[in-house]
Amino acid sequence: xxxxxxxxxxxxxxxxxxxxxxxxxxxxxxxxxxxxxxxxxxxxxxxxxxxxxxxxxxxxxxxxxxxxxxxxxxxxxxxxxxxxxxxxxxxxxxxxxxxxxxxxxxxxxxxxxxxxxxxxxxxxxxxxxxxxxxxxxxxxxxxxxxxxxxxxxxxxxxxxxxxxxxxxxxxxxxxxxxxxxxxxxxxxxxxxxxxxxxxxxxxxxxxxxxxxxxxxxxxxxxxxxxxxxxxxxxxxxxxxxxxxxxxxxxxxxxxxxxxxxxxx
Length: 264
Ligand code: IPE
Ligand code: IPE
Ligand code: MG
Description:
- The protein has a domain of 180 residues: Undecaprenyl pyrophosphate synthetase, CATH 3.40.1180.10.
- It has 8 helices and 6 strands, in the order αβααβαβαβααββα.
- β3, α5 and β4 form a beta-alpha-beta unit.
- The chain is globular.
- 33% of the residues are buried.
- The structure holds 3-methylbut-3-enyl trihydrogen diphosphate (IPE) (2 copies) and magnesium ion.
């Protein structure tokens, strides 16, 4: 990993022809951007490579998007790396992913230090293979005092499992006598999710063209804007992110109300 003293201006210099950076409003960048990093396998297969090579290439993309989000002053970047359903893949692919996660986290610690990025995990990391779990716990400690962007990595994450866990935790509070069932509201539920304390995603990007959530952040994306691109994750770069944010900036977010100009 090399040093990087880029700024917003230098990191986003020389955009491709379809992007007008003059139209980009830096004051309207989502606070929380979430990426469903999909298409590593197809990216690799289409090049005659193994799926593992696709996952390795996907890590290069994630690194670029982390730096891009820091330069854009994004508060939270979350990324779906491994779902509770991904255990059903061939053991060899699961092992490779777990190994890659650990290796990458160690390799990228200097980047996280340099960019002041704090890592949190969404999902049950206690159930991961020992080596991966230990590296994650070590990495968490290493970045816990960082005060810049939060990088929320969803590993062994499933939204239904998260909601069931929240129900369990809330029930335990009730049984312990510290919570009155009458007081349970939306904030109570949100406070018992893995994302407690983080703002909800405003923009969810899914690569590889799939039009589904695949059990991702069901509660938190209630009013998120979705951006789907056919680009496979390993081909997704800073300009893909800019296109997604430009699309976001063109959306009319009504939250069930009316557009400002239509209120009178
Ligand atoms: C996303 O890429 C990464 C993980 C789920 C770990 P995929 O591995 O799902 O790639 P495709 O969808 O098979 O192309
Ligand atoms: C979603 O991708 C999970 C991650 C990106 C980690 P999948 O490839 O697992 O989703 P499906 O199987 O196409 O729904
Ligand atoms: Mg996939």
